[in-house]
């Protein structure tokens, strides 16, 4: 199987008629025309074997995850997915691997109406690079995208879904932790097939003041919001502990560590004015995505942790950094 | 140096005011608003060490080349570059390498008014994935992009610039060939710092009937045009031999092999009606890019080679394929 057979067989489908894709896979470029009155939100994520996924992961799940982590960036901006490119470095052209990989990838793409419009295929150490495109409405020449920079003092702080379970699964894989089989399997699904919070992101446009996706751990990604907004925050650790599904299989200190600095969660962390609590709940209900209020934005820079009794906790959790 | 310091130090610059980039590096997504009346041309290319470049290449040249090969895809569509994302897997965060790499990359970006708007940075085997965005005018709802599919029987066949010198340099690096030092240095510059034919591609809109960039070798990339257009072609090998600058350092058979199947050229192969010869010359002059007429489009499928005496040549040259 050659390079172009491989692309034709696993990665070529006709563009959806009437959609924004004027030309899909097969030419030097794809052509996309965003809907009138929208801007294009663009994000790239690269996944490397042994770092973003284990070599043992089922290819179908890997296909899902490679797109999911990119859709999660669109979700953080409140964008509606429209298309993506896929660049693949593969050790060899193996149909046994490519067939389920492309199935997992395209199933998630179809679920979000996100078309594969182009990319590249090369021989090399396994590496998946997706660039994803979404639409965000413009109003009076300004985009309605959720940004990291809009958090205001007094805003509530929220997180969607669960945090920390993906990290728990990784620690089990690494042999650092032992939990009951059903706890591990649920956590493993979180790690291998995250659900990008696309519907929630869209529902939060005009409601949330700032948002980011949690990929490097809550502390790190909330940190981006705080720095870009010029504010600080306080997290209620008891509320945060409720975010990890497997909390009963862990001691509280370890569970809190996974919640705060686990990574690989692909949830949204966002802020909204205190008078928008009903609107946040409505967005949560509309998108069928649970959200948990875990703290508040404060004027004092930095991040503080308080327990239910109001005591300040000192911890050393750090965000994931590829080069630290 | 951590991941975010690295991005801030080497890869973050403010978007150009009034340009299509509403939001650049630093949020979950970038935001781009194509100019009114245009579609966005999109292409991704991934470069792997040892396959697309040698580990010994100067980082500044590699930065240039990583973007150049992507701009070459925009050139093939006649698009005007506007922006790109860069995803990088690096063995380590090495400022000595990153500084010249980013210098070479951004110098070429600036020369084409193409803004770095986002991307990803991760630890892993060296891998560079760029996704590039260009604008193509729409007319009556149809894009004016040059496509591979428009070649017509009777059209002339052209190639820009030079073909085969990059491959010559590679063969010298591999120890398969020996040439005078000045021939090697000129060929090496072609291999390491290709010039994407962006101005020519734009000038050929409305003139050329089909176009592609030559990255895998002329036979392979012309083959894409022929298949998608449902036509064949005949190449005049004497005209084609004029495309390799180093022809005097080679025997004719080897020179022709490099021209036909060398790869890594990043020139344009294109077709145009015979009555458009003056317009093609005007596009060449306007873009200050030489073009050579090397053959004709014919009804009979496949590619034929004829010498100046009209004799049909039989050769075994093949396009580069990553998995063959």
Automatic annotation (TrEMBL), chains A, B:
<protein>
    <recommendedName>
        <fullName>Thiamine-monophosphate kinase</fullName>
        <ecNumber>2.7.4.16</ecNumber>
    </recommendedName>
</protein>
<dbReference type="InterPro" id="IPR006283">
    <property type="entry name" value="ThiL-like"/>
</dbReference>
<feature type="domain" description="PurM-like N-terminal">
    <location>
        <begin position="26"/>
        <end position="136"/>
    </location>
</feature>
<dbReference type="GO" id="GO:0009030">
    <property type="term" value="F:thiamine-phosphate kinase activity"/>
</dbReference>
<feature type="binding site">
    <location>
        <position position="28"/>
    </location>
    <ligand>
        <name>Mg(2+) 4</name>
    </ligand>
</feature>
<dbReference type="Pfam" id="PF00586">
    <property type="entry name" value="AIRS"/>
</dbReference>
<keyword id="KW-0460">Magnesium</keyword>
<dbReference type="InterPro" id="IPR016188">
    <property type="entry name" value="PurM-like_N"/>
</dbReference>
<feature type="binding site">
    <location>
        <position position="73"/>
    </location>
    <ligand>
        <name>Mg(2+) 3</name>
    </ligand>
</feature>
<feature type="binding site">
    <location>
        <position position="120"/>
    </location>
    <ligand>
        <name>Mg(2+) 1</name>
    </ligand>
</feature>
<feature type="binding site">
    <location>
        <position position="73"/>
    </location>
    <ligand>
        <name>Mg(2+) 4</name>
    </ligand>
</feature>
<feature type="binding site">
    <location>
        <position position="52"/>
    </location>
    <ligand>
        <name>substrate</name>
    </ligand>
</feature>
<keyword id="KW-0479">Metal-binding</keyword>
<feature type="binding site">
    <location>
        <position position="148"/>
    </location>
    <ligand>
        <name>ATP</name>
    </ligand>
</feature>
<feature type="binding site">
    <location>
        <position position="320"/>
    </location>
    <ligand>
        <name>substrate</name>
    </ligand>
</feature>
<feature type="binding site">
    <location>
        <position position="213"/>
    </location>
    <ligand>
        <name>Mg(2+) 3</name>
    </ligand>
</feature>
<comment type="similarity">
    <text>Belongs to the thiamine-monophosphate kinase family.</text>
</comment>
<feature type="binding site">
    <location>
        <position position="73"/>
    </location>
    <ligand>
        <name>Mg(2+) 2</name>
    </ligand>
</feature>
<keyword id="KW-0418">Kinase</keyword>
<dbReference type="InterPro" id="IPR010918">
    <property type="entry name" value="PurM-like_C_dom"/>
</dbReference>
<keyword id="KW-0067">ATP-binding</keyword>
<dbReference type="Pfam" id="PF02769">
    <property type="entry name" value="AIRS_C"/>
</dbReference>
<keyword id="KW-0547">Nucleotide-binding</keyword>
<comment type="function">
    <text>Catalyzes the ATP-dependent phosphorylation of thiamine-monophosphate (TMP) to form thiamine-pyrophosphate (TPP), the active form of vitamin B1.</text>
</comment>
<feature type="binding site">
    <location>
        <position position="44"/>
    </location>
    <ligand>
        <name>Mg(2+) 1</name>
    </ligand>
</feature>
<comment type="pathway">
    <text>Cofactor biosynthesis; thiamine diphosphate biosynthesis; thiamine diphosphate from thiamine phosphate: step 1/1.</text>
</comment>
<feature type="binding site">
    <location>
        <position position="215"/>
    </location>
    <ligand>
        <name>ATP</name>
    </ligand>
</feature>
<feature type="binding site">
    <location>
        <position position="43"/>
    </location>
    <ligand>
        <name>Mg(2+) 4</name>
    </ligand>
</feature>
<feature type="binding site">
    <location>
        <position position="28"/>
    </location>
    <ligand>
        <name>Mg(2+) 3</name>
    </ligand>
</feature>
<feature type="binding site">
    <location>
        <position position="264"/>
    </location>
    <ligand>
        <name>substrate</name>
    </ligand>
</feature>
<feature type="binding site">
    <location>
        <position position="216"/>
    </location>
    <ligand>
        <name>Mg(2+) 5</name>
    </ligand>
</feature>
<keyword id="KW-0784">Thiamine biosynthesis</keyword>
<keyword id="KW-0808">Transferase</keyword>
<dbReference type="InterPro" id="IPR036676">
    <property type="entry name" value="PurM-like_C_sf"/>
</dbReference>
<feature type="binding site">
    <location>
        <position position="45"/>
    </location>
    <ligand>
        <name>Mg(2+) 2</name>
    </ligand>
</feature>
<dbReference type="InterPro" id="IPR036921">
    <property type="entry name" value="PurM-like_N_sf"/>
</dbReference>
<feature type="binding site">
    <location>
        <begin position="119"/>
        <end position="120"/>
    </location>
    <ligand>
        <name>ATP</name>
    </ligand>
</feature>
<feature type="binding site">
    <location>
        <position position="45"/>
    </location>
    <ligand>
        <name>Mg(2+) 1</name>
    </ligand>
</feature>
<feature type="domain" description="PurM-like C-terminal">
    <location>
        <begin position="153"/>
        <end position="306"/>
    </location>
</feature>
């Amino acid at each position: 199987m050659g390079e172009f057979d491989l692309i034709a067989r696993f990665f070529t489908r006709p563009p959806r008629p009437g959609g924004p894709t004027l030309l899909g896979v097969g030419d030097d470029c794809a052509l996309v025309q965003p809907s009138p009155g929208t801007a294009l939100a663009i994000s790239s994520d690269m996944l490397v074997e042994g770092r973003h996924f284990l070599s043992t992961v089922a290819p179908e799940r890997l296909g899902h995850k490679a797109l999911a982590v990119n859709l999660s960036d669109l979700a953080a901006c409140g964008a509606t997915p429209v298309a993506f490119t896929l660049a693949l470095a593969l050790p060899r052209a193996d149909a046994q691997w490519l067939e389920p990989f492309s199935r997992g990838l395209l199933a998630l793409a179809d679920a979000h109406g996100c078309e594969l419009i182009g990319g590249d295929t090369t021989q090399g150490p396994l590496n998946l690079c997706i660039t994803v495109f979404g639409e965000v409405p413009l109003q009076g020449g300004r985009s309605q995208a959720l940004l990291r920079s809009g958090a205001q003092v007094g805003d509530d702080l929220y997180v969607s879904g669960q945090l920390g379970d993906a990290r728990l699964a990784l620690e089990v894989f690494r042999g650092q932790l032992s939990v009951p089989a059903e706890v591990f399997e649920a956590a493993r699904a979180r790690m291998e097939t995250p659900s990008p919070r696309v519907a929630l992101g869209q529902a939060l446009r005009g409601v949330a003041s700032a948002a980011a996706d949690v990929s490097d751990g809550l502390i790190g990604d909330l940190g981006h919001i705080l720095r870009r907004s010029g504010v600080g925050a306080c997290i209620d650790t008891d509320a945060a502990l409720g975010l990890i599904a497997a909390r009963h299989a862990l001691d509280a200190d370890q569970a809190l560590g996974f919640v705060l600095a686990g990574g690989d969660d692909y949830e949204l962390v966002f802020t909204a004015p205190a008078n928008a609590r009903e609107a946040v709940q409505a967005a949560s209900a509309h998108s069928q995505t649970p959200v948990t209020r875990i703290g508040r934005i404060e004027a004092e820079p930095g991040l503080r942790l308080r327990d239910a009794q109001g005591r300040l906790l000192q911890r050393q959790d750090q965000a994931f950094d590829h080069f630290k």
